[in-house]
Amino acid sequence: GENVEQHPSTLSVQEGDSAVIKCTYSDSASNYFPWYKQELGKGPQLIIDIRSNVGEKKDQRIAVTLNKTAKHFSLHITETQPEDSAVYFCAASLRNTDKLIFGTGTRLQVFP
Amino acid sequence: EPEVTQTPSHQVTQMGQEVILRCVPISNHLYFYWYRQILGQKVEFLVSFYNNEISEKSEIFDDQFSVERPDGSNFTLKIRSTKLEDSAMYFCASSWADTQYFGPGTRLTVL
Q1: Is the pLDDT of residue B79 over 80?
Q2: Which of A7, A97, B17, B93 registers the highest number of CB atoms within 10 A of its CB?
Q3: Which among B41, B48, B91 is the nearest to A43, CB-wise?
């Protein structure tokens, strides 16, 4: 079945710096890749997603890139702010299936 | 903005007892899901539900688990005889297509 690996497990950056989180997936039939932010005690909140027919997508300070050949996708956060501190999860979904397969998560800490 | 809601926020139960976790999905969504997250671990898929039947389930979702949409708004997860290892956060999600929106979760503690 599909497997999603995520790195790094923790990431500390200074406010204003950029943060990059990387994920790889195993099944080339995966076609949908969302990113979720999870704050302490809350459910995962969708922040951006990308589909396999697109290589890059941007929403203000957040961008996601997808390399289908290498089977990896990345989350880029620019001009980080302390409120960006949270756990970020990548996920992948196969075509014609319902389930999301999540990565192991990255704890991002942004220091003022 | 519409959101998925879940009740209760925290449920404590004795091993062997039945629990029912409740969810109200976003109103125009057609697909419903349950996931769980053991403390400190990743989110794991349990089951998906569409058109009043299970469309997919994981190996975790054994005979002790069941789901139901008893009316037009609620979606429930029942665990018949809880085990210690069922202790986790349980998240409900709903979607119109492939984008899934998650609720705040129910923390289940089995003693």
Answers
A1: yes
A2: B93
A3: B91
